[in-house]
Design a protein that fits this description.
Elements (H helix, E strand, L loop, with lengths): L3 H10 L10 E6 L5 E7 L9 E6 L9 H12 L3 E6 L19 H15 L9 E7 L1 H12 L8 E7 L5 H8 L5 H21 L15 H12 L5 H8 L7
Parallel strand pairs: 3-4, 3-5, 5-6
Antiparallel strand pairs: 1-2, 2-4
């Protein structure tokens, strides 16, 4: 299939039969009082010191997104212990967070990494796991920011990382997706973000309440309306500059 737009759109509109994983749900507490959900799939043959993959989802997704489910199936079949995490307010943890996930939430990934290491090392004699981190799109930027902003603090268990299509310069990314030829994607993501915001605010009425008035129709509009003020930024551009991983990539 040569058309890149068809490659992007078809997987989202064609029904896919996903494997049912009986993942074990873990609640990871964060320093600000929020919590996130982590889903573990452990092959029977896995032993201490074995390979582990921590998988992160993209914008408006969760741990059951088809890409992560397929990766989990392939990795566990090869003896890899897999942990998929729902970013704040997403998936199984929608009721556990008051603050939203965003492109710069590297501290949340750090909390997941430490929780996974603790889960894999039940006793002091257990070998540390051999961890690979995976992020796609927005979480790819989160992953690179995590690795680059304070490399000396990364646990030695983290041996490798894969970031797929990360928007390392968020301003460039937002300008690209708002281009006329990409507008269909921007509209889709904006609708999905608004839908998620409505669902989340119903179960967590204490989340940041945007000002009254017209609802945003663009991604930058949404970030100005909700994301940036909800996480303490003046506006979307300030958030984009601070959260972009490009500035910490060697």
């Amino acid at each position: 299939m040569k058309n890149p737009h068809l490659q992007t759109i078809l997987p989202t509109v064609v029904p896919q039969k996903l494997a049912e994983h009986k993942a074990e749900l873990h609640r990871v507490e964060l320093s600000d009082g929020d919590a996130i959900a982590v889903h573990e799939d452990c092959p029977k043959e896995w032993v201490a010191g074995g390979k582990v993959a921590i998988l992160s989802h993209g914008l408006t997704d969760h741990h059951r997104t088809p890409l992560l489910v397929r990766l989990t199936e392939k990795l566990t079949a090869r003896g890899v212990r897999v942990f998929r995490w729902d970013m704040r307010s997403c998936g199984a943890g929608i009721e556990w967070a008051r603050r939203p996930y965003h492109a710069g939430c590297s501290n949340d990934l750090g909390a997941v990494v430490h929780a996974v290491i603790e889960q894999c090392c039940k006793t002091t004699s257990d070998l540390y796991p051999d961890i690979t981190l995976f992020g796609v799109s927005l979480s790819g930027n989160v992953l690179l920011k995590y690795l680059g902003e304070s490399p000396a603090t990364i646990p030695t268990s983290v041996q490798r990382a894969v970031a797929v299509n990360p928007p390392i310069n968020l301003i460039a990314g937002i300008e690209s997706i708002s281009n006329r030829r990409n507008r269909v994607y921007e509209r889709h993501f904006t609708r999905m973000l608004l839908k998620h915001h409505d669902q989340w605010s119903r179960v967590r009425p204490d989340v940041y309440s945007p000002p009254d008035g017209p609802r945003p129709r663009t991604l930058e509009g949404f970030d100005n309306w909700f994301t940036a003020p909800a996480i303490g930024y003046r506006d979307a551009r300030e958030y984009y500059v601070d959260a972009s991983s490009a500035k910490v990539i060697p």
